[in-house]
Specification:
CATH superfamily of chain B: Dimeric alpha+beta barrel
Radius of gyration of chain A: 24 Å
Oligomer: heterodimer
CATH class of chain B: Alpha Beta
Mean pLDDT of chain B: 90
Structural class of chain B: alpha+beta
Shape of chain A: elongated
Distance between the termini of chain B: 20 Å
Largest sheet of chain B: 4 strands, antiparallel
Strand content of chain B: 25-35%
Number of helices of chain B: 4
Largest sheet of chain A: none
Number of domains of chain B: 1
Largest interface: A-B, 20 and 20 residues
Order of helices and strands of chain B: EHHEEEEHEH
Structural class of chain A: mainly alpha
Low-confidence stretches of chain A: 98-104, 203-210
């Protein structure tokens, strides 16, 4: 082990931390429900590894080493607290369970339970995604705060509150019963997709600190698939994310210019990612239960066809959107439907769909104004189109999108 | 609840100002203003001249001191402010992110002091 230098060790620790973080936190907190203490214990273990591994060599089973170190730290913490607050529920739970915490290379993977805990109905839905990013992936509060556009202090406090609720609020670490599974799973999928969407909108697109949130979300999607291979919507979500990811490079010109989907060079799309997405979508179809994410993935699949066929089958997209609007009539879905109808049946038809949306719902919803501006312009209604463009420009966060729309507005 | 968006520009950004309608930035700012008004959150706003046009006055122990330029010698300087009526700081941060000033300089979001205190100033 002497040949390993400091830098290599750091890289190994980083990799192990990345791959094992969620497994270790999930395992350490499954019995106690004390996620915060599990995270503290694991970070102590990682700090210990930074000194021990370069000195003694990387252990044969790094994950088991971290688990042992984290467990010691965990029990120390709880003993400390034992003095302070004797009725701490963690302590009671630990007493019952700590003896059962067996150290072996093969400890049970409790990440699925942790994912369901993060997206539990008793937890504020706005915190589902931040909790997952922190507890399963180990992202720090500041980075999550940037993505969610809140101050790091506020995000830190919200995460602490949510974890206290998990510990003290009687939220069980369990996979939901058959009866409530679809709804509970939906919340997990939504939270993962929210992380993907934030990473997708994050125009920097390249997070200086490494992977961006979209990649993290895809990682979570893969973890979930590994844990629930028979759930069609899990595959649907992964397919959807991979289809979008396949186009990442094509979304920007060499000068950073925004390029809308319809003008993207399909030769720049990633074929391996498209193929992987198609594979998951086909598997999902075999499972015979359709759902929102499969439909969204199917729409992206039609778009991806352009790489082969050279054209977009808008009528097929409209059909998928019709089903999607029926089961998931979100604002985004309805606007996507309007845009698809406009491509298939002309701008008037698309505009009619937009007119059916309550104006109060869209006063700050940028995509509505962008689609509306585009359709009005196609109809030659220049002055109302300019107004709609202004709303879309004013609500845009991404400077490249703003530039694109300013140019289109003329 | 009222929030101020304090818009800070770098010297380069101040330099990009043309102060006339040929300003390429102006379209984005105008659209942003429109979006604020249409969303019903706009209370008021104003832009400031470039920092070099400022003059800073202090009185210390009865002595006047007058200095050319802005109060603080920082790279990014206050360029304007917008007052918004919003339910929460979360909403204010969203509007700050959409502000054309955020993609070049910086936008600070700060709540206005409680109304009772503000009324204390104005009588």
């Amino acid at each position: 082990m002497n040949g390993i230098n400091q830098e290599d060790t750091h890289r190994i620790i980083e990799r192990v931390a990345r791959e094992s973080y969620g497994r270790l936190v999930a395992y350490l907190s499954a019995n106690t429900r004390d996620v915060a203490s599990a995270e503290d214990a694991l970070s102590n273990a990682l700090v210990a590894a930074l000194t021990a591994w370069p000195r003694d060599g990387v252990p044969q089973n790094p994950e088991a080493w971290l688990l042992t170190a984290a467990r010691h730290s965990f029990i120390d913490q709880v003993r400390h607290r034992q003095v302070a607050e004797a009725s701490e529920p963690t302590l009671l739970l630990l007493r019952e369970n700590s003896m059962e915490m067996v150290l072996s290379a093969e400890f049970p993977d409790e990440r699925l339970k942790l994912l369901f805990v993060c997206a539990h109905p008793a937890i504020d839905p706005a915190m589902h995604t931040p909790l997952m990013l922190q507890t399963v992936l180990g992202l720090d509060a500041a980075r999550i705060a940037h993505a969610f556009l809140v101050s790091p202090t506020t995000m830190g406090q919200r995460l602490v509150r949510a974890k206290t609720k998990i510990r003290d609020g009687g939220i069980q670490f369990e996979v939901p019963q058959e009866r409530e599974l679809p709804q509970r799973l939906d919340a997990v999928l939504e939270a993962i997709y929210a992380a993907f969407g934030i990473g997708w909108d994050d125009m920097a697109g390249v997070d200086q600190r490494g992977r961006d949130l979209s990649e993290e979300a895809i990682w979570l999607g893969r973890v979930l698939l590994e844990l629930m291979p028979r759930e069609a919507e899990v595959r649907g979500l992964l397919a959807l994310m991979l289809h979008c990811e396949a186009r990442r490079r094509a979304r920007r010109g060499p000068d950073g210019r925004y390029i809308p989907l319809s003008e993207q060079d399909s030769q720049q799309w990633s074929l391996p990612l498209i193929e992987e997405a198609e594979g998951h979508l086909a598997e999902a179809a075999n499972l015979g239960r359709t759902g929102r994410f499969q439909l969204e993935a199917a729409i992206q699949s039609v778009h991806a066809e352009r790489a082969r066929g050279g054209r977009t089958e808008w009528t097929a997209i409209v059909v998928f959107y019709e089903q999607l609007v029926r089961i998931s009539p979100t604002l985004g879905t309805r606007i996507g439907y309007a845009a698809a109808i406009a491509e298939a049946n002309g701008p008037e038809a698309g505009l009619a769909v937009l007119d059916g949306i309550d104006p109060d719902d869209v006063s700050v919803y940028q995509p509505y104004w962008a689609v509306r501006a585009h359709l009005l312009q196609r109809l030659g209604k220049t002055s109302v189109a300019v107004d709609a463009f202004d709303r879309a420009i004013g609500l845009a966060e991404d400077p490249a999108v703003r530039q694109f729309l300013l140019h289109r507005r003329g | 609840m009222q929030f101020a968006l304090l818009i800070y520009h770098s010297p380069e950004e101040f330099g990009m100002r043309k102060n006339d309608y040929s300003d390429p930035h102006l379209g984005a700012w105008r659209a942003y203003y429109k979006a604020l008004v249409e969303a019903g959150v706009y209370v008021g706003a104003n832009a400031l001249e470039v920092p070099e046009t400022g003059t800073t006055v202090r009185l210390r122990e009865g002595k006047r001191s007058v200095q050319d330029g802005p109060f603080a010698e920082t790279k990014e300087q206050l360029a304007g402010l917008i007052i918004l009526e919003l339910p929460s700081v979360d909403a204010a941060l969203e509007w700050a992110a959409r502000c054309p000033g955020a993609s070049i300089g910086a936008v600070e979001v700060r709540p206005l002091a409680p109304e009772a205190m503000r009324r204390g100033f104005t009588g």
